[in-house]
Amino acid sequence: MIVVMSPASTKQQLDHVVKMVEEMGLTTHLIYGTNRTVIAAVGDKRMVDKGAIENAPGVEKIVPILSPFKVASREVKQENTAIALQPGGASIGGKALGIVAGPCSVEDRDTLLEVADAVKAAGGVGLRGGAFKPRTSPYSFQGLAEKGLQYLAEARERTGLAVVTEVLSVTHVDLVARYADVLQVGARNMQNFMLLKAVGEQEKPVLLKRGMSATLEEFLLAAEYVINAGNPNVILCERGIRTFEEYCRNTLTLTIVPAIKRVSHLPVMVDPTHGTGHAYLVEPMCLAAVAAGADGLLIEVHPDPEHALTDAAQQIDIPQFQQVMKRLARIAEAVDRQL
Ligand code: PEP
Ligand code: MN
Asked: Is the entire prediction scored with pTM above 0.90?
């Protein structure tokens, strides 16, 4: 349920209601809107005395949350949420689009720094790159692990770009959070509930990718796990789903962008790279995603895609990335966004 505080309520009244609701066994999340503060109270409602809450000073009304996801829903917060990738840095979810780009995997220091410089120069706000890679085959390149994280941190020092990198396991959350600005939870882990809770218990923002067979509701419920564990900063990322279609690696469902925005206040990014699996499809899908309302893009860029250690077929090269950024600026303007 949502406890709506009246615009004139005081901080003491808010604290009192929060305490009261928590004593009834519910978890509270404070949402500060432009006019008023609301308390989203989630959990087992059997012990809740609604009358007592309604009568507490400063409370305007109680409204049930009808959607299955609660704290992520628009019922709780009407305004869009913007999430800063670094404290005081660029955000995803405001008027400005957030472009995060970089190689599929961190392969070596020089390649990473070359891409980082190009991403920064073209107007990107974040650098992606996997140090821990979820590979289908155990014989494929698994990533450079901590060494890769160190290269990413060095690239951040040099360019100021926010580092977005995947965390594969609960046991790596502390390690990855020490180096990264944003923790990525990959498609294969979207319903790894222990991992969702673990990234929810630390403070860095989380980029949550849609599972390859997940419905919109499952996707938002996964985000809800992270928020419920204490971290409200969840950026959703559509990356395509498995269908019977074979000409592309995944089917990029751009319809989910406005569909999520209708029911949730969380920012939505699109990954046109994994969403298609082919470099030639990346640019048109970048443009289409922004036209559809995406708040940002996650793009794989490699100086020499042909020789990339992972995902060679789908990474675009640096000149292609520069061209995408130029064309995106025009689409952004057409949909009242900035690049
Ligand atoms: C990635 O972005 O590095 C990745 C592995 O993507 P996904 O989890 O969407 O497959
Ligand atoms: Mn990849």
From this structure: yes
